[in-house]
Write a structure and sequence with these properties.
With 60 residues, the chain is of the alpha+beta class. Strands 1-2 form a two-stranded antiparallel sheet. It contains 1 helix and 2 strands.
């Protein structure tokens, strides 16, 4: 029997996290972007429940 980290739900959510991070990075790592970016996850009993992306751009 595997650990909670190896559960199908966590594997699927970790894949979503990787994709979300790649999308955030492709959007912010370019000239003209000034601001902050973040990736947040909610975990309950060792299982990833929700993923939140946050990108705030400063208007110059």
């Amino acid at each position: 029997m595997g650990t909670v980290a190896e559960s199908r739900t966590n594997r699927d959510k970790m894949e979503q996290l990787h994709l979300a991070l790649a999308e955030i990075l492709s959007g912010v790592l370019k000239r003209g972007f000034h601001g902050t970016a973040g990736l947040e996850m909610t975990v309950q009993d060792g299982t990833i429940q929700h993923i939140r992306r946050k990108v705030e751009q400063v208007e110059r």
